[in-house]
Structure formats: C-alpha cells, structure tokens
Amino acid sequence: MSEKVSTFLNVELRGYRYLFFLVTWNDFISEIRRQLENQIEAFGEVLGPSGAVVQAFKSTSGKTYEEVVSKPWGEEIAKQLRNDPDPFMLIVDTDFRDFDPESNQWSIVRFSDFGESPDSIYRLLAALARKVDAGDDLHDYLRVVAAKEKYKKWSRSFQLKTPELFGLSIDCKAVIEDLLGLS
Prior knowledge:
Largest sheet: 7 strands, mixed
Number of strands: 7
Strand content: 15-25%
Helix content: 25-40%
C-alpha cells in the first residue's frame, strides 16, 4: 500500500508489519527524486499486506520532515538527517506517534548513496520487498548486513545500536550487494 498524508503523526500500523516513510524536506528535483517518484508506488504495491509506504503531500513535506527529525535521535544520526539533501526512508514497526528511536526498532535508508546510479534504486526497493514478503525480520537483516566486516569502510554511513538502543542507518549498496551475493 502507498499513501500520501499531510502529517505522519496519525499514521498507524493498522495490521502492517512495517511502515516505510519516504521523507523529503525540499522541492529540489534530482535524478534520485525522479527515480523515487517513479518507483515508490510499485514498491507499496509489492509490499502488499506486509507494509505501507507513506509520504507527504508536496506542500507538507517540510512539516513531516520536522516531525521525523524532531524525534530523539542520537547526535550522529540527527546530524546526518539534517545535512543530507536527498530523501531518506525511515522504516519502523510501530505507529509513528508512539515511535521513539531510543526504544523502538528502526532503520533508515539514505538514498544519497545512489548519487552515481539512481536508476538502481528499484533494486533496493525490490530487495526490501522480497525480504518482507519472505517473512524475514527486516531490521535484523539490515543489522546483519551493516555488521559485516566488508562494510566497515562505510561505518560513517550507518549506525548500529546495541540491543537496548534499537536502530540503524545503512549504506544501500551494501544491501544490494548482499542480496545479489556479491559480498
């Protein structure tokens, strides 16, 4: 499912396993943004009853961006979210209003990693949809990919938290390479 809203505060799981928030803060058009606009509805459709893709109406994207970044993120993640000019995707398994990055699981996909190959975004979205469709725990899967020794060079692109602190932000290329067996 895919939907547009004027606020994320009222978005609830309603039986879905995951909520995928596509977060933008500006109206700049880039190739990354074009690819997301072309692929996001298909991604929501492929997720079926397991996930909902949520994005803001263009006129309220700044407001929903602030709703996300005003959550109690750690200093490094907050800085990344505020400084990245490209959209990102927040993945949670709880209602947005109740979501607390310090106590709930979360993952952030930073699409800025696709600056040189935005036409590959569909591969990442398809890979995430396959994992969800297979019943895999998406947060656990992304945590495993992030922890692989090979991806230490991208340590600034993700944050892996200990069990009492539940979130991570990951390099998108690492997920694709893992799923294609290139790791």
